[in-house]
Amino acid sequence: MDPVSGLLHGFSVALQPQNLMWAFVGTFMGTAIGVLPGIGPALTIALLLPVTVYIEPTAAFIMFAGIFYGAMYGGSTTSILLNTPGESGSMMTALEGNRMARKGRGAAALCTAAIGSFVAGTIGTLLLTFLAPPIAELAFYFKPPDYFALMLLAFLSVSVVMGTSKVRGFISLFIGLSLGVIGIDKAGGMQRLTFGVPDLMDGVELTVVLVSLFAIGETLYVASRFGMQKPNLNPLAGGIWMTREDWKRSWKPWLRGTAFGFPIGALPAGGAEIPTFLSYTVERKLTSHPEEFGHGAIEGVAGPEAANNAAAAGVLVPLLTLGLPTSATAAILLAAFQNYGLQPGPNLFINSGDLVWGLIASLYVGNLMLLILNLPRAGVWVRLLFIPRPYLYAGILIFSLVGIWGVSNSWVDLAMMFGVGCLGYMMRVYDFPIAPVLIGLILGPMAEQQLRRALQAQQGDPMALVSTPLSATLMVIAALIVIVPAALHWRRTRKIVEPADAE
Questions:
Q1: For the segment 333-345, what is each residue's pLDDT rounded down to a tens digit?
Q2: How does DSSP classify residue 284?
Q3: Among 349, 345, 371, 354, which Cα is nearest to 122's?
Q4: Dist. CA 214–CA 210, nearest whole Å
Q5: 201: CB partners within 8 A, 6+ apart
Q6: pLDDT tens string 315-367
């Protein structure tokens, strides 16, 4: 099915009344959790996984997409009015947006953020619509060495790029890979890391780990540090619409932010942080009002917010076409697919066309809903910030416990939930990245399977892993991801040491 026909069919699915309802629920929830600091789309989708198994898959993923996109919109509200990003992609928005709010231009900042998000989200979804099918077709030609090399690239890039330390990144990856191998080895029939517990023979329940890391670990961390803080809001002033000058200064950053966000979001470990930072840096260099940067420049809000939302669309390209998650939220979406017995990749477009195209079409609908929800109603969303945090996090913990018990009815899962939750809390305390754990857990068994297939085809010859041009290229890129940062660090250290020795 060509992209145009697929999209038209997708709209026939997305515009059904029940799916429109789920799209609205998703966008509403996404905006709400984006506004609340410390609660992001990954945590929310993880919490909903035990519940949504009873919902039809297309409706569930339309809701998840609404949550994903909505969180990008909502995160700008707390960045601008509270100087506290609701999610990581809104960090750069806080630099200029909060200063605009302090000067009485909070409404203009929220307006350019909402419109920029709509423009970038729509363009990103258009690119997703026309790029996803050909990439999915190319994936049919991938061989086991290609898939293994691609997953190895994802492992290394996520571990090196995310977090402040490569060592911490690799430790997080090791934890995820270790959790992924628990259970019976499908090839040899041997038990691995079960410790004599029968409930672990089927492996670790993915939903338990996801909910534990986010709903337990993340909320304990946020509550322990920020639980008693009261919001210090900057008031909305100046109406909701931007001036003619604001429009003139915003439309180019919207487009440039989109150009940064979409391709970087599609890369392993790309995420939203890198394109938003690049967008802010470029706008600071290109602006005709350099004196305003650091004091409330509207370009510093328009560009990063566009990059943030375009990156969300970019994340969906490798997820839907290759089954490759490039962020924590994408990893949880992949887990949601697996919960329904679906594997994202080229076959998904053939076997589950209604779901894929309905999901893509819902992104257009959701973007329009989000613009309507956010542009005139920013002041309403701000009221969510006055919910006492102890009540909020207590509710999250209770909901997660009930959800896990309702799905598994297993005391072992509850005990594992407590243990993994404490592990997640300690990881946050000592600044270990969470994303490598998720990607190692989800992709680890798949990488093991592709590794075995590649080696079996060549009678155990390790050169089979670089036997195709694509696998060899990906292996070289993976090696460079590890070697280049280490070499640059060594060079910087040497330059610092040499002058010291000379003195």
A1: 888 888 888 888 8
A2: H
A3: 371
A4: 6
A5: 183, 184, 191, 194
A6: 888 888 888 887 778 888 888 888 888 888 888 888 888 899 999 999 999 98
Single-letter residue type at 209: V
Phi-psi region of 178 (alpha: psi -120 to 50; beta: other; left: phi over 0): alpha
- Which tokens in the block code for residue 84? 């506290």
Summarize the chain as % helix, strand, coil (round to 5).
75, 0, 20
The larger pLDDT score, comparing residue 288 to residue 475, is at 475
Q: Which residues pair with 184 in a beta bridge?
A: 191
Structure tokens given for 54: 């009873």
Q: What are the tens digits of pLDDT across the range 154-206?
A: 888 777 766 567 888 888 889 988 888 888 877 677 788 777 777 777 777 77
pLDDT band at 238 (very low <50, low <70, confident <90, very high): very low
What is the spatial distance between Cα 283 and Cα 293, in angstroms, rounded to a whole number? 9
**Which contiguous run of DSSP H or E holds residue 183?**
strand 183-184
Q: Residue 270: its pLDDT value, please?
A: 59
Structure tokens at 239: 């109406």
For residue 90 the two structure tokens come to 């809104």
From the CA atom positions of the chain, what is the Rg in Å? 23
CA distances 394 to 34, 188, 215, 220, Å, are 18, 44, 10, 10
What's the pTM?
0.82
Angle at which helices 57-82 and 41-52 cross, to 10°? 150
Is residue 440 within 8 A of residue 155, CB to CB? The reply is yes
C-alpha span between 496 and 484 (Å, rounded):
19
Percent of the chain with pLDDT over 90: 10
- The CA distance from 109 to 140, in Å, is 45
Q: Angle at the Cα of 372 (from 371 to 375), degrees rounded to 5?
A: 70
Q: Which one, of 75, 78, 53, lies nearest residue 64 by Cα? A: 53
Separation of alpha carbons 257 and 247, rounded Å: 15
d(CA 102, CA 95): 12
Which pair of structure tokens corresponds to residue 266? 């599609």
